[in-house]
Amino acid sequence: MTRRALIAGNWKMNMLRADGEALAAALASGFAAGAAADLLVCPPATLIAPVATKLSGCAVAVGGQDCHMNESGAHTGDIAAAMIKDLGAGYVIVGHSERRADHGESDETVKAKAAAALAAGLTPIICVGETEAQRDAGEAETVVGNQIRGSVPEAAAEDTIVIAYEPVWAIGTGRTPTIDDIAAMHAHIRQVAGGVLGGADKLRLLYGGSVKPGNAVEILALEDVDGALVGGASLKAEDFLAIAAAAA
Ligand code: PEP
User: Which residue lies with its CA nearest to atom 4 of ligand 1?
Assistant: First the structure.
């Protein structure tokens, strides 16, 4: 099964409008249509519309970093999946470890958000990953398996969601698991997700955590790694495009 790679950039809470538009313009001119990977940027909610405008007509997709689980209503400061879609987005990240930690999001919350994304016509990128203590205790596969069973909504199919494996201790630290550990975890995730979804041959699994141009080729060459979720290195067009080129 050939799965098309997805290289997704998570801009997190970075950039004002001028910088975001400049980065989007650099990606639009630097990313070749017909490339081997799909390219996606997930700017802060304030920049989805201007970035989508800069990227209109080019092959780079836009996504959100989070959405609310409800369609509308009294949720001050929150953003519904349909609102993100309305701005031109096609994807939304849910369950990033920073949201799980900073906002106390449980698997149940993440599942409801992913379901809301699907209902709005967005592709949810569902994030899972163990802490360093859990890995050291030999619990990484159990933790991640439970997160998948708890966070993937019933309405999901293998080709309507993306799962991103992001070990919490590798995010923004410059550290990564060994290549064997990444391969083993991705094989485990495909097996668990296949049980939940009734098949996972078409499911795209991203690795995230300190992906850089220097390690992307090796990571993206792994059989069960179908792309990357990139934080810091997605803020520089040159680095992000180099990671996308590594998926060829
Ligand atoms: C992330 O936050 O999703 C991430 C992977 O960050 P970084 O690439 O900076 O480790």
Answer: 231
Q: Which residues are catalytic?
A: 96, 166
Q: Output the domain CATH number for residue 75.
A: 3.20.20.70
Annotate the chain with three-state secondary structure: CCCCEEEEEECCCCCCHHHHHHHHHHHHHHCCCCCCEEEEEECCHHHHHHHHHHHCCCCEEEEECCCECCCCCCCCCCCEHHHHHHCCCCEEEECCHHHHHHCCCCHHHHHHHHHHHHHCCCEEEEEECCCHHHHHCCCHHHHHHHHHHHHCCCCCCCCCCEEEECCHHHCCCCCCCCHHHHHHHHHHHHHHHHHHHCCCCCCEEEEECCCCHHHHHHHHCCCCCCEEEECHHHHCHHHHHHHHHHCC
Q: Which atom of ligand 1 is nearest to the CA of 12?
A: 2
Residues with CB under 6 A from ligand 1: 10, 166, 171-172, 208-211, 229-233
pTM: predicted TM-score of the whole model, two decimal places = 0.98
Closest residue to atom 1 of ligand 1, CA basis = 231
Which residue owns the Cα nearest ligand 1 atom 6? 231
Give 165-206 pLDDT, tens digit per residue.
999 999 999 999 999 999 999 999 999 999 999 999 999 999
- The pLDDT tens digits for 100-150 are 999 999 999 999 999 999 999 999 999 999 999 999 999 999 999 999 999
Range of the domain at 181: 5-246
Query: How many domains would you assign to the chain?
Result: 1
Measured in Å, residue 28 CA sits from the centre of ligand 1 at 22
